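Inverse folding, one chain.
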């Protein structure tokens, strides 16, 4: 016999300025060669929020950890891909992270679905993202949520001694 422990996920919400420290910690803790094109962050750390990364660009998910504390469990950044008026109908996922302790609980999927809803409510009808070709877990998640590969930039990045593809994915936001 085994016991099932549930650690409920709370509704996804917009980030607020007071999330900055937790988001910075989560971002550093989830840094991985699987998805990062920038070097591992080193102290002194840059602020998580800046002129190009505002709290309103981020959706966050909270969940109870094993100790029963409600903690920041994940985030996604959702922004227009360009400042051009001709593509205001598009939103782009530019980052998605889930804490190791919170993986396997549907948090990334909840963040994506909240991003779809937020983009629709903002008038968007299309969503795009970029993912490294070797990041099979992320690609599988995105495909399961309706994204399709729309383009590949072969060998776009030279990371850790090898060339890695940059995969562009997109999906309609039509109901």
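Residues assigned per position:
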């Amino acid at each position: 016999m085994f016991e099932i422990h549930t650690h409920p996920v709370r509704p996804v919400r917009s980030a607020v300025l007071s999330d900055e420290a937790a988001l910075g910690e989560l971002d550093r803790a989830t840094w991985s060669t699987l998805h990062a094109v920038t070097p591992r962050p080193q102290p002194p750390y840059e602020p998580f929020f800046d002129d190009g990364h505002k709290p309103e660009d981020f959706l966050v998910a909270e969940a109870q950890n094993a100790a029963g504390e409600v903690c920041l469990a994940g985030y996604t950044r959702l922004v227009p891909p360009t400042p051009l008026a001709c593509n205001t109908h598009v939103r782009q996922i530019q980052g998605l992270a889930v804490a190791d302790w919170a993986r396997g609980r549907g948090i990334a999927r909840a963040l994506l679905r909240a991003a779809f809803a937020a983009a629709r409510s903002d008038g968007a009808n299309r969503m795009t993202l970029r993912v490294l070709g070797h990041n099979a877990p992320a690609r599988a998640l995105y495909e399961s949520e309706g994204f399709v590969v729309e383009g590949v930039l072969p060998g776009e990045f030279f990371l850790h001694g090898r060339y890695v593809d940059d995969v562009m994915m997109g999906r309609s936001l039509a109901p």
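The longest helix spans residues 107-121. Residues 1-7 have pLDDT under 50 and may be disordered.
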